[in-house]
Amino acid sequence: KIPPATIYRLSRYSRKLSLLSKEGLEVVSSEKLAAECGVNSAQLRKDLAYFGEFGVRGVGYYTGHLLQHIKNILGLEKEWRLGLFGVGNLGQALLHYPNFINQGYRFVAAFDVDPGKIGQTLGSGLDISDMKDIAEVVSREPFGIGVITTPAGWAQQVVELAIEAGVKGILNFAPVILRVPGDVVVEYVDFTLRLDSLSYYLSNRS
Amino acid sequence: KIPPATIYRLSRYSRKLSLLSKEGLEVVSSEKLAAECGVNSAQLRKDLAYFGEFGVRGVGYYTGHLLQHIKNILGLEKEWRLGLFGVGNLGQALLHYPNFINQGYRFVAAFDVDPGKIGQTLGSGLDISDMKDIAEVVSREPFGIGVITTPAGWAQQVVELAIEAGVKGILNFAPVILRVPGDVVVEYVDFTLRLDSLSYYLSNRS
Ligand SMILES: NC(=O)c1ccc[n+]([C@@H]2O[C@H](COP(=O)([O-])OP(=O)(O)OC[C@H]3O[C@@H](n4cnc5c(N)ncnc54)[C@H](O)[C@@H]3O)[C@@H](O)[C@H]2O)c1
Ligand SMILES: NC(=O)c1ccc[n+]([C@@H]2O[C@H](COP(=O)([O-])OP(=O)(O)OC[C@H]3O[C@@H](n4cnc5c(N)ncnc54)[C@H](O)[C@@H]3O)[C@@H](O)[C@H]2O)c1
Q1: Would the pLDDT of A57 be above 90?
Q2: Is residue B1's pLDDT more than 90?
Q3: Chain A residue nearest residue B5, CA to CA
Q4: Phi and psi (nearest 5°) for A117?
Q5: Which of A32, A59, A169, B203 is buried most deeply by CB count within 10 Å?
Q6: Which of B97, B171, B187, B189 to mutate to test the pocket of ligand 1 (most atoms within 8 A of CB)?
Q7: pLDDT digits (tens, 9 = 90+) for B40-95
Q8: A122-168 pLDDT, tens per residue?
Q9: Does residue A16 have a pLDDT over 80?
Q10: Any CB–CB contact under 8 A between B96 and chain A?
Q11: Model confidence over A62-89: pLDDT tens digits?
């Protein structure tokens, strides 16, 4: 079993490799790639060793070749279709963000319960659908990952509706732990957790 | 040295304890608190043991008492003042979020370089300051934590200006690794990392 921290680091290696490859760097040493990603080179080699042997002794890694390998491992050779639940402040910031497309993520549906929002068309051409119509919208525009930006109190109910409609991956921004069946994967983005961690380290520095 | 994952879990325990305490629950068992936070009770007891003995044998934990202890450990008994750099889509969503105040975080300053934004007053009464005036604004409205929501290409330069003005804690949303001196603490919020992790698990399920 691969540690979750290794998967997060793979994502960082792939992002850095794609920058290096755009800059025309053909070969990169494990020391350089590690330093650019804020890790040590032993950690980088250990992470990659879970998936096979990619380096060439005395040369390093072929940038494009390693990038392609990591993208395949992460499942990024295909484009992921996303659906957003809760088109409020945060939801709109996510829908307006142009970089998701470059990284292989595209919003194909957005849902809300507010009558003032349902039926509106966003800048990207996306219509805001009614939560009531989720089954019908998903059958027309299927998506693999649901992004939850509803108020905390609604998140559990919304995730159940999304799962019922066939969604198996959830990126949750609401500050609640979601109860989901075993075949559904949930990732949390929690800003306050990060702020509390800053508070701890700033308060406990000697 | 306390593992970073323990600090993140402490933050989750404190959030859940404050909900339980609001509901009037005087005492809570380690099993119940652990289950509500999505961890096992041995992990919870191990996390708390780093900081002392809080449970009462046969009873569990006094909810209000444990909450106060954890808040003190995390440095949450005081209100943290925040400054935001880059009042764009994401920055505005953060500035409009009412819940940060309830958790002890208040934005006292916001900076941008866009002449169309500088001088505007936000709904919360906050003025958008010019990045050029950072030293003068920070001396008037000091803050301990800088939140970076500028484009990735500017993040390193902005963090250096913030540190020069005396800021020691950074919450960074830009997808770059920041180089900072040893006495500055940085936390990253990276949505794409989480999406890539979802992609990995969804692509590798048997
Ligand atoms: N904005 C931030 O900076 C921030 C920070 C941390 C956490 N969060 C979390 O992100 C979530 C969204 O925050 P926000 O600031 O965008 O809130 P918001 O109130 O601006 O937006 C919430 C949206 O969800 C919609 N909604 C309500 N019930 C729904 C349902 N059952 N189904 C579908 N849509 C529904 C509302 O109509 C609204 O459009 C919250 O859970 C919040 O705690 C936000
Ligand atoms: N919006 C999202 O959903 C999202 C998702 C993931 C990551 N991010 C990251 O968050 C950051 C902000 O994203 P956004 O969508 O809000 O971008 P945005 O373009 O909407 O906002 C950026 C703001 O920063 C300001 N700015 C530019 N240079 C500056 C400088 N030197 N000092 C101060 N302010 C400056 C701009 O004037 C603008 O107001 C980016 O780094 C982005 O990669 C955003």
Answers
A1: no
A2: no
A3: A197
A4: -105, -35
A5: A169
A6: B97
A7: 999 999 999 999 999 988 889 999 999 999 999 999 998 999 999 999 999 999 99
A8: 988 999 999 999 999 999 999 999 999 999 999 999 999 999 999 99
A9: yes
A10: yes
A11: 999 999 999 999 999 989 999 999 999 9
- All structural domains of chain B with their residue ranges: 4-73, 80-193
- Predicted pLDDT at A59: 87
B25 pLDDT above the threshold of 90: yes
Asked if the C-beta of A192 comes within 8 angstroms of chain B's C-beta atoms, the answer is: yes
Please report residues of A whose CB lies closer than 8 A to that of B75: 199-200, 202-204
Does B90 sit within 8 Å of A191, measured CB to CB? no
Nearest Cα neighbor of B199 from A175, A20, A144 is A144
Relative to the CA of A173, which ligand 1 atom is closest? 10
Neighbour count for residue A185 (Cβ, 10 Å): 18
Q: Would you state the CATH architecture of domain B80-193?
A: 3-Layer(aba) Sandwich (3.40)
Domains A4-73 and A80-193 share a fold: no
How far is it, in rounded angstroms, from Cα B115 to Cα B170? 25
User: Measured between alpha carbons, how far is A19 from B2 in angstroms, rounded to an integer?
Assistant: 34
CATH code for residues B4-73: 1.10.10.10
Residue spans of alpha helices (H) in chain A: 4-22, 30-36, 41-49, 63-74, 89-95, 99-102, 134-140, 152-164, 191-203
Q: Which stretch of DSSP H or E encloses residue B171?
A: strand B169-172
**Residue A151 Cα, gap to closest chain B Cα (Å):** 11
DSSP H or E run through A80: strand A80-85
Query: How many CB atoms within 10 Å of residue A103?
Result: 20
Number of Cβ atoms within 10 Å of the Cβ of A139: 10
**Cα dist. A128→A121, A153, B152 in Å?**
6, 21, 29
Q: Residue A4 CB: number of other CB atoms within 10 A?
A: 12
Rounded-to-integer distance, Cα A84 and Cα B202, Å: 18
* Chain A hits for B83, Cβ within 8 Å: none
pLDDT(A206) > 80: no
